[in-house]
Amino acid sequence: MARPTKLANTAQSAQLAPAFVSLEVPLYYQLASVLRDQIVAGHLGHGDRLPTEAELVETYGVSRITVRQALQNLEADGLIRRKVGRGTFVTEQPHATAPLLMEGSLDDLMSMGLATKVKVIDLQTIRATPELAKTLRIDSGSPVTRCTRLRFHQSQPFSHIVTELPDEIARRFARNDRNGSILQVLDRKLRIPVRDAEQTIRAALANTSLARLLETRIGAPLLAVERVVLTDDGVPVERVRTHYRSDLYSLKVHLNRTRANAAWSVTRKKAR
After folding, report:
1. Which pTM does this prediction carry?
2. Where are the beta strands (DSSP E) in the chain?
3. Which domains does the chain have, with CATH numbers?
4. What's residue 93's pLDDT?
């Protein structure tokens, strides 16, 4: 038996109405994104009935044509099913992946590389731009090996990885070394003592290429992570830029205080 309509109360719905970000982005696309996010986040679950077209028009201040286009978009993605005379209902969402666990250390990154499958989609030698040369502390124009890979969990792509290594290090890699954990190859095979990394995390949107490779939609929210791996002596040996599907992977950071009035510090990171 279907559960009752969610967001049917207009007063309650008005609190959730989005401030559409730009008139340059089609309103139907923005409305579809809002509803999609509510489904993915679990606010609208399997069997829930969406508000009627009229209720969506009133809640979000858009035309009926816009609402219909948004619903067609969601139906094409398999998120909803419309039943004549009954309404529009959220479909059961597949749970394609088990939780991915990472505790935040370089050892944990190595373990994730072993527990997931990797596909190399591009390998080339480039010349270091001034920005990349500064990051890797090499001369501008120096040869750098760039390897682009997809990482899979239970046959589903969840991350797009671009790894850049100074050519003098990359030449020591065997063909199959890039099919697993590059960190492990650096540390255990090449005996390069990697002990530290600097990491930046930001939000991003899937462009046409990333959407196709990660099997998601254009404009889907992604987690963008840039990491520079350092040796014991603080020498950078690798830059990694990764885009994660945010519906399959997330970071959870635990903060603690070591003493009164001390600054908060990160002690654990977890991903799913």
Report:
1. 0.64
2. 3-5, 48-49, 80-83, 87-90, 117-127, 143-153, 156-166, 194-205, 221-231, 236-245, 251-256, 265-271
3. 3-90 (1.10.10.10), 106-271 (3.40.1410.10)
4. 67
